Amino acid sequence: MAEPKLLSTQQITEHNTAKDLWIVVDGQVWDMTEFAPEHPGGIGIILQYAGRDASQPYNEIHTPSLLNKTLTSSRLVGTLDTSTISDSWAKPPPQQNPKVQLRNEKPPLFTLLSTHDFEFVAEKTLAPKTWAFYSSAATDLVTHKANQSFFDRIWFRPRVLRNIRTRDTSAKIMGQKVELPIMCSPAAMAKLVHPDGEKAIARGCQNKGIIQCVSTNASFPIEDIVSSLSPSRNSPPPLFFQLYVSKTRSNSEALLRQVWSLGIRTIFLTVDSPLAGKREADERVRMDDEQQGIPMMTGMGKPMNDKRGGGLGRITGSFIDEGLDWSDLPWLRRHWKGRIVLKGIMCAEDASRAAEEGLDGIVLSNHGGRNLDTSPPAILILLDLHLNAPHVFSALEIYLDGGIRRGTDILKAICLGATAVSLGRPFLYSLNYGSEGVEYLIDMMKDELSVAMALVGITSLDQAHPGLVNTNDVDYLVPRTEGHPYARKRGKPLKAKM
To answer: Which residues sit opposite 460 in a β-bridge?
Structure first.
């Protein structure tokens, strides 16, 4: 038998691609080009050591003889000439996905693997006031935390042995096809995060085939946001508009006319914020001169500090009409001929009323836990509807906003009857990287959703159903009646006679 060919490190290094892939294990040089795609651990780890010495990671997992048993002798191309080893060649390869490390600057976008990474980077790199405004929630943060934690208390019931080779994450929202069932929630003054603010979000959403809902308190006029998009002759702009009704109704009426003229046909009327909750983290950090100069779309003033602190949510919301009620819906319909969605439904009774009023949709939301602390988490509201107002699922499109951080969260909401979900803070944190960050976030969510679908055993969202989830851990918290099950309002005690 001929002696194996002696190969230098320079010769080996030339074979470092997926189409021509050699590695060294215990001094033997192997051609892994055909085997790598079939490697049970994935091609990635082999590619990481392409053209290099992979002895250490190989021996940590495999027995020394496995390669000789698995590969034919023709795949053994030679032995390493140890005299050619240099210090640089002997060093382990760089990590493909280095851990996020910050030195007062943003790490490369490709190192971020989850919405939690986006949040971590935002906390370390955004201006203190910007971080305080967007991350803050009401008083003790109970609802803010529950929005996320309640998703963790719902378990999947996967189905196996299903053909899941091809999966479709697309959906329809208000008749518009979207690439996945998510929207970007409305948020005020996105320019605090990035100079392009809402315009960057709009471009990122459009490029990835989802819808952005633009806030009344956006930092750009709605016409500027629309004009930043690529024009489309055959379809409306991929935008909805969120409305806060002003105490000066004529201002809201003019705004609605402007929105309609731009081709937007759906508004989200926020109903859970007649005034802002107490957000202590936001109040503690006062605005600097630049932040006080950021205008709002409404033209109803600029953010500014006052004696109570620097709470942006409280100060910028001072124009909102605290007297808005159900009797104002006819007024809204006189000035808006398109679709109307109520944003901020927190109980089955109000969901039923929305259906009775002929509205087009509702958003189950507690405003990200930013207003009334200990209001119910969004996913629990969805279960409330199933138990106490099941008819609304055939009358309205139902969206869920609050606590969505993973593709599994999206799928759980869809299984439980939501039309789609809406994400707020994750989009703002991704805006830290401009429109590229927004697109990266959407791709991340799409990938996570697709994987979750496959592992649950479905290939399209219309196959999702409640039987795929187990809600036993939270079912006891779902209200059984409109009133309290046993407590009653009691009369005043009678005064004792003297």
So the answer is: 168
From the CA atom positions of the chain, what is the Rg in Å? Answer: 28
Q: Is 328 a catalytic residue?
A: no
Catalytic pick from 244, 399, 429, 433?
A: 244
Asked if 414 and 377 touch (Cβ cutoff 8 Å), the reply is no
| pTM: predicted TM-score of the whole model, two decimal places | 0.80
- Which residue in 58, 367, 384, 409 is the catalytic one? 367
Buried b / exposed e along 107-134 (16+ C-beta atoms within 10 A): bebebbeebebbbbbbeebbeebbbbbb
Which 3-state string (H, E, C) describes the chain?
Answer: CCCCCEECHHHHHCCEECCEEEEEECCEEEECCCCHHHCCCCHHHHHHCCCCECHHHHHHHCCCCHHHHHCCHHHEEEEECHHHCCHHHHCCCCCCCCCCCCCCCCCCHHHCCCHHHHHHHHHHHCCHHHHHHHHCCCCCCHHHHHHHHHHHCCEECCCCCCCCCCCECCEEECCEEECCCEEECCCCCHHHCCCCHHHHHHHHHHHHCCEEEECCCCCCCHHHHHHCCCCCCCCCCCEEEEECCECCHHHHHHHHHHHHHCCCCEEEEECCCCCCCCCHHHHHCCCCHHHHCCCCCCCCCCCCCECCECCHHHHHCCCECCCCCHHHHHHHHHHCCCEEEEEEECCHHHHHHHHHCCCCEEEEECHHHCCCCCCCCHHHHHHHHHHHCHHHHHCCEEEEECCCCCHHHHHHHHHCCCCEEEECHHHHHHHHHHHHHHHHHHHHHHHHHHHHHHHHCCCEHHHCCHHHEECHHHHCCCCCCCCCCCCCCCCCCCCCCC
Contact at 8 Å (CB) between 119 and 429?
yes
Q: What is the pLDDT of residues 200-254, one digit of tens each?
A: 999 999 999 999 999 999 999 999 999 999 887 667 899 999 999 999 999 999 9
Tell me the per-residue pLDDT of 388-437, one tens digit each, with 9 for 90 and over: 999 999 999 999 999 999 999 999 999 999 999 999 999 999 999 999 99
429 counts as catalytic: no
CA distance 360 to 243: 15
Active-site entry in 31, 53, 196, 272: 272
Strands 20-25 and 16-17: antiparallel
Cα(108)–Cα(112) distance, rounded to whole angstroms? 8
Report CA-CA distances (Å) from 19 to 35, 47, 183, 231.
Answer: 11, 10, 39, 41
The answer to whether 386 is a known catalytic residue is no
| Residue 324 tokens, joined | 């808005």
| Rounded CA separation 315/428 (Å) | 20
d(CA 196, CA 409): 29
